[in-house]
Each structure stands twice: as C-alpha cells, then as structure tokens.
Amino acid sequence: MPELPEVETIVRGLREKLAGGRIRAVRIRTLKIVRTSSALFRRTLCGAIIRDVRRKGKFILIELESARTLVIHLRMTGQLLLVPENAPLDPHTHVVFDLEPGGCQLRYRDVRKFGRLEIQEPERPLPQLTALSPDPFEISARELFRKLQEKKRALKPLLLDQTFLSGLGNIYVDESLYRSRIHPLTPSNRLTEAQVRRLHRVIRRVLRQAIQAKGTTISDYRGPEGIVGGFQHFLRVYDCTGEPCRVCRTLIEKTRVGGRGTHFCPGCQVPG
DNA sequence: GACAACCTGACC
DNA sequence: GGTCAGGTTGTC
Questions:
Q1: Closest nucleotide to A131's CA, by C1' atom?
Q2: Which nucleotides of C are covered by protein (CB under 7 A)?
Q3: Is the CB of A154 within 7 Å of strand B?
Q4: How does strand A22-28 pair with strand A104-110?
Q5: Is A260 assigned a catalytic role?
Q6: Distance CA A128, CA A122 (A)
Q7: How far apart are CA A110 and CA A93, in angstroms?
Q8: Is A58 a catalytic residue?
Q9: CA-CA-CA-CA torsion for A235, A238, A239, A243, nearest 10 degrees?
Q10: What positions of strand B are covered by protein, i.e. any atom < 7 Å from a CB?
Q11: How far is the CA of A194 from the C1' of B7 (A)?
Q12: In the 3-class helix/strand/coil scheme, how is A32-55 assigned residue by residue?
C-alpha cells in the first residue's frame, strides 16, 4: 500500500515525535514480522536513543545512537501508529514500542502481515537496501534517460522495479504515465529524450503533490497519527476505471501489465 | 517475462 | 464460491 509519499509522510511524523527520544521497551507479539532474532532485536532496541528517522525508497530507517538502524518495510498493509499507552491493543498489532518521554507508544500494525522489521548493523548493510536505486528526487532527467536507454523492458514494470528506480508503486506509476501521456507497455529504449524529461518532471510533481496531501488512502493507509491521506481526491486514472478522461473524454480502462492492475486512457496513451 | 506465494478482508 | 488489493520475492 504505501509508496514514496506515504512513507515520507510517516517518516516526517515519526521524526518529529521520536528523534532524540528513547525506546524504553519492546514487545513482539507476532514473531514472523521481525526478521532479526528476538533476542538481538530486544537487546538492540531496549534503552536505545533515536538519532533520526529517514526514508530510503519505501523503507523507513529508524537510526539509533548505537549506529544500528531499525529498518522497516510496510509492504501492503503495514502501519506505524503513535498512540496513547492506554489505548486498547487491536488484534493486528504485532510489535509495540514503549517510548521515553512516556505516555505514547509506537505500534506496528499490519492486517496482512507482509511487512518486515529488521536490525541493520553498521558494518553489515542489508542487501535489500544496498540493491535499491535512487528515488526520483535523487536522479536527474538525463540520468533517467540514460538508464531507460540501457533497458528494453516495458516501461511500467521497469518503473516499479525498486532496483531500477525506487519509491514508485502502482498508484503513482499509473498517475505519472497518464499525465505524461505514455502507454505503460512502451519499451523503455523507445522513449525520446523529450518524453523522458516530461516523465521525470511529472513523476516529481505527482510525488510532491501527494506528499503535500499527506499520501493516498484507498483503504488502509494511515499516517502515524492515524489520519488518512488526501491525494485520492486528485487521482486521474488510478481507481478511475470507466470514467471519462478529463482531456479527451475516452473512458479510462483497466488492464493487467506485469501482473499488476493498470489504469490508462486508450485515447491519450497510445502504444509507442 | 509470467505466476505463485506470503495473508486478511472487502466485495460480487 | 471467486476475485481483487497500495509490495516483494522466489520459481519456472
């Protein structure tokens, strides 16, 4: 569920509340969510001072003074919620962090249990993190063009590939391709430099607007204070199947590309 | 590449 | 009963 704008929103909220504070205690309620041994997980986090909270691609990094990092990926339905200590525990809460200063807990909640929490040692960076490519704000249009030229895959699956470009997921890829008027199946090496410049600009703009709206909530996404995002009101193709395109009035269609539901306008996004 | 797997819930 | 879901990974 969460893509770059949702993760960025969470990271900003957590940083404000957590940076400089301390984790007093940790309770693991569902073992499989935590990829590090429970003992190491607890030993690392109990009493740890939080230096900063950052984002890398769709990963959340809670950096500790010990130089170790709590690495979190929310996958589809993961949530990080800041709640009062006395709030009732719901059955989908899998990890609970007691915080200092107190009164508040950080809870990891995840209906589908796809998400992962893991400790990264400074001398042993996690492979999933080192394999990540820069996100759209860390790469120039020129560089993106060069990378796209090197591949000849269909554009959409490539943009979803976190080792090619990080941060984008299904919503923002569909929105970016629609707003750039590029068909999702266009071979990446057939894009002109002008098309890539536009795509690069559009991706950045869509992500910035979505961050400003505090993310997109279709169903599960919540910010750390439990609030829903607002960008769902600005979607133009994603979840708009059957509605007329606002540019050419053609009805928005949904197909499958690379195994993912794909929304596009057959009028504006003609195959390259 | 396509597809199943990981899980639960919503919807038809 | 079946299909679908904002993600990633492992298998042909």
A1: C8
A2: 4-9
A3: yes
A4: unpaired
A5: yes
A6: 15
A7: 7
A8: yes
A9: 80
A10: 1-4, 6-10
A11: 43
A12: HHECCCHHHHHHHHCCCEEEEEEE
Is strand B in 7 Å reach of the CB of A32? Answer: yes
**pTM score, two decimals?**
0.98
Taking the C-alpha atoms of residue A219 and residue A197, their distance in angstroms, rounded to an integer, is 33
Strands (E), A111-219: 116-120
Q: What is the pLDDT along chain A (272 residues), one digit of tens a residue?
A: 799 999 999 999 999 999 999 999 999 999 999 999 999 999 999 999 999 999 999 999 999 999 999 999 999 999 999 999 999 999 999 999 999 997 899 999 999 999 999 999 999 999 999 999 999 999 999 999 999 999 999 999 999 999 999 999 999 999 999 999 999 999 999 999 999 999 999 999 999 999 999 999 999 999 999 999 999 999 999 999 999 999 999 999 999 999 999 999 999 999 86
Q: Which two tokens stand for residue A47?
A: 């009493």
Residue given tokens 């984790």 in the structure block: A23
| Number of helices (H), then strands (E), in chain A | 7, 10
CA angle, residues A76, A37, A110, in degrees to nearest 5: 20
**Position A16, amino acid:** E
* Closest to A235 (Cα-Cα) out of A260, A257, A210: A210
